[in-house]
Amino acid sequence: MSKLGAVVEAVEKHEKFVRDEVQRARTDEAFGREMLERWEKIKSEIPISRAPTGLPLPRLALPEIDEPGEIARYLLGDGLPGEFPYLNGAYREMYLEPLPEIETGSYGNAKSPNGSKGKKNGAKPQPPEEPTRLFSGLMLAEDTNKRFHFLSAHQRSKRLSTAFDGPTLYGIDSDADGVFGKIGEGGVAVDTVEDMVRLYDGFELGAPHFSASMTISGPAPIIMAMYIAAAKRRFGPKVVPNLRGTIQADIFKEVQAQNETIFPIEASLRFLLDMIEWTAEKMPRWYPVSISGYHIGEAGSTPVQQAAYTLSNGFAYVEMLSARGVPVDQFAPRLSFFLDCGLDVEYIALARVSRKIWAIGMRDVFGASPRGQMFKLHTQTSGRSLIAAEFKNNLTRTATELMLAYMNGTNSCHSNSADEPFTTPSEEWIRLAAHGQAILLEESGIFKHTMNMLSGSPGMKAVERAVEKAILDEFREIESLGGVMGAVENRYQRSQIQNAAHRYEEQIYNGTRPIIGLTRYRSPEDEMPEIELARTPRAKQELQVRRLKAFKKKNAAKAAQALDQLSEVVESCENTFPALLEAVEVCSLGQISDRLQEVVGRFRPMV
Amino acid sequence: MASPVRILTAVPICDGHDSAINTINLEFIRHGIEVVYLGFHRYVGDIVRAAIQEDVAAVGISSYNGGHIDFFAEVVRQLRRAGAEDIAVFGGGGGTITPDDAKIMKRKGVDQIFFAGTSLGEIAQYVKKRYGNRRKKKNRRNADLVLARELTQIEDARGKIRNSKFTIRKSREACVIGFTGPGGAGKTTLIDELVLRFLRNQPGARLAILSHDPSVVGEGALLGDRATMINSQDDRVFMRSMATRGQAGGLSPATESCLARLTSAGFDYVLLETVGTGQEALPFRGRLIDQTVLVMNPDYGARLQLQKIVMLDVADIVVVNKTDLDRAKVALSEIEYRLTQNKRGQQLVATVAKRHRDAGVDKLYEMLTEPVIPSAVEGSRGKSFKVTSRDASNPPRFARNDGKGKGQAKKQTKDN
Q1: Are residues B196 and B327 in the same domain?
Q2: What's the domain range around B35?
Q3: What is the mean pLDDT of chain A?
Q4: Which of A1, A263, A588, B70 would disulfide-bridge A268, Cβ 3.0–4.6 Å?
Q5: B295 and B185 in contact (C-beta within 8 Å)?
């Protein structure tokens, strides 16, 4: 049995625990009183914020209950935000505008109960950082760099999310046969550490206000090594422990859905775990894997499949790292998650249920402390829900999805740009997408005064229950196939996703899934919009090839040596990551992945 | 009944977006189309080679990662250069291919681009109608193409074309190895791993692969072996995927005739793979197979089940694949006992084909490439295979692994 079965049992046990405690609160007078007293205390400590109209509102809205059993059900079954099992949120506060003064209580401001720190200094309290993330990647490193500066110009915190072009995602050099037209398409071309230096030029890597996120999995350990090498070149070796950011590196979802795997699964997992082990120790602020359901959702899964596969993949990584002897509290707080948010009704509660299952599994099966129980979530609105026909409707789709994502208490969010069905997003539509988030969080009052304005409604609860049950059923199925690895080898997740995708398409054309502007209310003039397409000019592609060739020529002798050393380490049982750090100084991405493939083999695609 | 339309589908290099193509493949099959699926992240050269060898009527490309204008045009250009300009190219890419792009692509020879919003049924109907009755031009320039088209004629006549219609040389040159076994045993992976060893160790050798997938008479089929056979996409390998078109037993009605054609087409080896077979299957009835390999999964169930597997009595080599599974030890000893009882000198090999440089696959490769000594055991095979080199001046090509191969095998053991 893999640990997934144990997670199912732990969740069931927790449900029973909650039911028993509810009964106890109703029958055991002392316990009932304890519950009531705790409830009164919590209520009294909740600060009051004021809407611009002067209306007073609680920071945290609590259900209107005064019966000990129901109080126990809420506190133990759902948990306050930032409290086990984190259904309502991973942290105590999110999205909220800072209070000018705390009128009552101290909830959410434990460090300065009077909230007077800002007042004393006469300065305005610092607003928290924006949950908005800016995703970009186009053409060559310097082009993406320019885009990053444009996007983050008005942001207090620079949180950059990087998309790579096809050859980079597959570990192929820009000068390889047959990939020329793909250079810089759909993301930025990165072949060498020099490209990596160019990519984040002008940003202060290692500063608390800066973090980089890199959306790459197949060759992730090599790209991670390049990022570290680039940071060292600019800021010296001392920068390493201060680096903040995320690298996607999620091999399971690649094999299940996104198909950007370049080494056999076992070898890919080894390189990944080597990297996580190294970074967990040396880069305590880095998130070395972003366990991703996004691509599973985009490949066509149902929301429940997305959550079930993502969570089970996460548990599988935890199981493997634990088996290597890495202490759970060293790596568990560095795991983060990435989910899709589409328009299906399940999304109203998907992240809430995911937080709960993760917390229970991590605490009760893997013995993680609270920081390792928190399901830290980045959400992206669904690219698949956006369509080309009457594409301006995509603004509404994305806005609806954003609303769902924030209602779920996501920790950060990316909103897709309406022109995504055609092209790498252009500046005009990216701006609208980013502003959509600002309108929702900063202009509207929905999220900024009361943190859980829309959570916990009876309807949402109903979805929660149904979704939780369905996720546990999926876990049982995976467990019966021998856990995540067994299920992957039986291509279980892949075939489930493919079936769901096919059903989705059928539903569109048989009318069960209306698509406005396509299958309903279609406009008579069905023309594609005039959109400025971001295509990489040939001259730029040629430049990238020239630069790469010069790098290879300059480092030819050293590269051969570094690659041989790398082979040796891979043949041994040592951690491969230090050897990658050496190799990226003188070798290109393609040189390294080719060499690794020689030693460990190539990935055999599953269909 | 008219033969099904055959098409090839693929996703371009550096693109893993296979959700659309998987959905469309299913729809094609429902419409009675035979789809050879090459998979995602595929080079132009691989697509063109496959299109020619499989002799499809059209190539469908699903592209979502940009660079489509160049990519589609290059497919058209390389097909033309190979003399296969009658193989049409079509495709789509949701919204990523704009109408303006499509105009350029059509000018460059692409037959059709489907935009987002086209229903699945509409695409399938178009393909059936447009590519259903294409007349193929005769082409004598490209040997692969000539061979591929002869195979199509044989296949469409359900094997009833007598071999005399084609130029079949008197002497058979290729060593024919038949692989069979239950579905999920890993035949395809095993064959592809053997191909890697053939190509590495015998630099001049050419191989043909005839692989089978099940289908019902007059209906579609998904021929997906190429997608996982990464090593077999090579200019020295001629691969052909066949649907069984209603014939039970693991092969197609045309297999034997196609095999006869392939054995005299200048290949050193022809590897034949059946569909996943049941216990009673005895797929290799013809006299064209030199060695038969039964590939098994350790999870065959209770020991009693072994008695029912007929192929165990006749296979020359029995491979137990996936021996990394828990049950492997028991399975190996049970099968070994069964083979000993047969007293026919059958060989047993344990492999983990999915593992890179697996020592078991190395051993199987050696067995298959050793000169076969006429079997001493009575009645083991109708005829014994004798190695004859096409060119007498060639050194024997069935040498054991060279030093390099052995070194690799050693390393592998260390890894484990």
Answers
A1: yes
A2: 6-131
A3: 91
A4: A263
A5: yes
